[in-house]
Amino acid sequence: IADYVARILFSESDIVVDLHSGGQSLLYQPLAATHRTGDHDRDTRALSALRAFAAPIGLVASDIDSYGLLDYTAESKGKLVITTELGGGGGISPRAVAIGELGVRRILAHFEVLEMDIGTEQEVPKETRLMETQEAESFVMAGIDGIYEPVIELGGDVSRGSLLGRIHGFDLLQTKPLPIESGVDGVLICRRAQGGVSAGDCVGLIARDFEISGG
């Protein structure tokens, strides 16, 4: 399937929209995302598409390991790509479904594939908050195996050094829990959904407001 999507479907497409959520392991604030590609025209159109999708957050994202991912594969072929993270934790919510369904219709209307007045939809948030992740430190990882105890709710403001949670280690029952701290300033837009973690698992993602550069 992956080969068919990459070779056939991508070759016949101008825009790729990848709808998914944080899976079973992560909880996200509902967002639509794109990447910086270095192509000014494509990046400008991608920001416009993020606003058109109208998720509460429009994220200009970076990934630690991008090899083989659908979005990077499509971007390498010159496609404009919008991805989503609509909730997670292995569940679904009416709000996430509504954001996804409306977002797809708005994207199609934005690119004149579908006739629709995207300015009159009542469900659209007043404004998409454009945010970004850049540094590897935006991704918060578990340092040991154990049970993760979060102390910050999704959407909470954090600073470098802020306590995000604690890991109670399986093999370290006689020691204090391992504190997990933020490496950057920003907003916690994603956190671990399950208690059990293994060393190297993502337990959080921190984004900051996106500053649009001139030129």
Word description of this protein:
The longest helix has 17 residues, at 94-110. The protein has 215 residues and is α+β, with helices and mostly antiparallel strands. The protein has helices spanning 2-9, 40-53, 70-76, 94-110, and strands spanning 15-18, 26-28, 31-35, 57-61, 80-85, 129-132, 139-141, 146-150, 157-158, 163-169, 178-181, 186-192, 196-197, 202-209. It contains 4 helices and 14 strands. The strands form 2 sheets. Strands 1, 2, 3, 4, 5, 6, 7, 9, 12 and 14 form a 10-stranded mixed beta sheet that branches. The chain has a 4-stranded antiparallel beta sheet with strand order 11-10-8-13, with no helix packed on it. It has 2 domains: 2-132, 3-Layer(aba) Sandwich (Aminopeptidase), CATH 3.40.630; 136-209, OB fold (Dihydrolipoamide Acetyltransferase, E2P). Helix 2 packs across helix 4 (94-110).
Number of helices: 4
Q: What is the count of structural domains?
A: 2
CATH class of the largest domain: Alpha Beta
- What does the average pLDDT come to? 88
**What structural category arises from helix and sheet content?**
alpha+beta
Rounded Rg: 18 Å
Classify the helix fraction into a percent range.
10-25%
Order of helices and strands: HEEEHEHEHEEEEEEEEE
According to CATH, the homologous superfamily of the largest domain is Zn peptidases
